[in-house]
Design goal:
seven-stranded mixed sheet; 47% helix; Rossmann fold; single chain
Length: 470
């Protein structure tokens, strides 16, 4: 989001609604830390009818991403130009883009290689002459023939799903012709152009899958590429001295970030049992030669794990999030803010109040919970599993680092102890009032009683389930 009273030339790019102008004016004022906390109470966190698709935010669809106004608010109120902002679960890079637009250094981290690619492209300014070269390469290659062996490989590797049928040989040929141009650019050392084209190609594949039809593949690709180039030109005009942006394809449970180097953390971790990113991205990854099978094994919170006892998935998830909290404490400067955006979900017909789990675990990892802000979200914006339906609300948990955590994220004994405490507390709630996460037809009392047995099994296996894979 661009400041209203910024440099000449910024304002003409956008037409702000009155509520947006009031919001931006609030952010442009100078506050002390305590004043900034009070200013948060003046914000309508639903941001209804606000523009959330501007500049590089519109490059690529991404499930369950938060709106840019969330990181923007905390970046403007709690950091200065030149400070460093971290998002350890950066997804498609929303936090990183807002840091870039507001002259803050940014570090993003994600296990998903597609997320890392999208984040890099959204925060990389490319000279206009290089963009012209990309189009020349595309024009030259359009006249060539695709590699038949590669087409056969793609057909063989397509997942055994009905949607795969939309990728007939003609569609694959067109996609492969485009992909071969990108591979040539990589060989030439034009990595930024290759990445840009790869995101346009991925967005094209996404559109094919979402619309369940092919259409004009080349035209869809070029339309997306032209849009991306146009927005990058706008960003280049706005950002005269780009800050440092680094995007890591790494694990938030063991961050490759220096201790005490971060001024602000804003992140939205994965929700337990809510969404499998690898399923959504598998077709994109096929055309980008990414291993979605390997990502599936590493994914945090995905509902493909522990299918016979979802409460073991919850234990594993809490262990993963606790390790991430320990790492966030390590890299964050003392007294500074960590903002976690999380929604609730459900397991085995039981409601999972994720924000309460996070608040409790944060207290064990050197954080003080300053406040929790609820907000309603557009039902069309959050993808979830069919089991829990659409997520309608999410919570912003504001944590201040008050002490250095005295354990490491690799301390299995500590993680086991904390997760056991959380799971025992959860078991008591389920025993007292079962079925709080039921949607639709209510299961039998016998079925709900079995949840206590499953919880007992999950608690007994915590030490085993929370271990990090070597």
């Amino acid at each position: 989001m661009i400041r209203l009273n910024g440099e000449t030339g910024r304002n003409h790019l956008f037409e702000w609604k009155e509520k947006e102008k009031e919001y931006l004016k609030l952010l442009d004022q100078k506050y002390s830390f305590s004043e900034a906390l009070k200013a948060l109470d003046e914000i309508d966190w639903d941001f209804k009818n606000f523009n959330t698709q501007y500049l590089s935010h519109k490059f690529h669809p991404y499930p369950a991403r938060f709106i840019p106004q969330i990181p923007l608010t905390f970046i403007k109120l709690f950091t200065e130009e030149g400070d460093t902002v971290l998002d350890p679960f950066c997804g498609c890079g929303t936090t990183l883009v807002e840091a870039l637009l507001n002259s803050r250094n940014a570090v993003g981290n994600d296990l998903n290689p597609l997320a890392v690619l999208i984040s890099k492209v959204k925060t990389t300014l490319i000279p206009e002459e290089k963009l012209h070269y990309l189009h020349r390469k595309l024009q030259e290659r359009k006249k060539g023939d695709p590699d038949s062996a590669k087409i056969a490989r793609v057909l063989k590797n397509l997942p055994n799903r009905k949607i795969s049928k939309i990728f007939d040989e003609t569609t694959i040929e067109k996609l492969e012709l485009l992909r071969e141009v990108l591979l040539e650019l990589r060989i030439e050392g034009e990595n930024e152009l290759c990445d840009l084209g790869s995101v346009a190609l991925s967005a094209t594949v996404w559109s094919l899958v979402e619309n369940r039809s092919t259409g004009d593949v080349e035209e869809q690709f070029l339309k997306k590429l032209r849009l991306m180039e146009s927005e990058l030109k706008k960003m280049a005009a706005l950002i005269k001295h780009p800050p440092r942006v680094e995007v890591l394809n790494d694990d938030a449970r063991k961050l490759a970030v220096a201790s005490g180097s971060v001024d602000l953390i804003v992140t939205s971790p994965p929700y337990v049992n809510a969404f499998d990113y690898y399923r959504s991205h598998m077709y994109n990854m096929i055309w980008l030669d990414m291993d979605f099978g390997a990502f599936k094994k590493q994914e945090i919170g995905g509902h493909s794990q522990f299918v016979n006892n979802r409460f073991r998935l919850l234990s594993r998830y809490l262990g993963d999030m606790l390790r991430a909290l320990i790492e966030m404490n390590r890299v964050l400067k003392k007294g500074h803010l960590c903002v976690i955006v999380i929604g609730n979900s459900s397991l085995e017909y039981e409601a999972i109040e994720s924000h309460k789990f996070f608040a409790a675990m944060a207290a064990c990892t050197g954080f003080k919970n300053l406040k929790t802000i609820p907000r309603s979200i557009d039902k069309t914006r959050k993808y979830t599993s069919s089991e829990i339906g659409k997520i309608e609300d999410e919570y912003l948990i504001l944590l201040q680092k008050t002490a250095e955590v005295e354990v490491s994220a690799s301390d299995d004994d500590f993680v086991t102890t904390v997760v056991e405490q959380q799971m025992h507390s959860f078991r008591e709630k389920v025993k007292e009032k079962p079925g709080t996460g039921v949607r639709g037809k209510k299961p039998s009392e016998e079925r709900l009683k079995k949840n206590i047995e499953k919880l007992d099994e999950a608690i007994a296996k915590i030490a085993e389930d929370i271990r990090l894979e070597k």
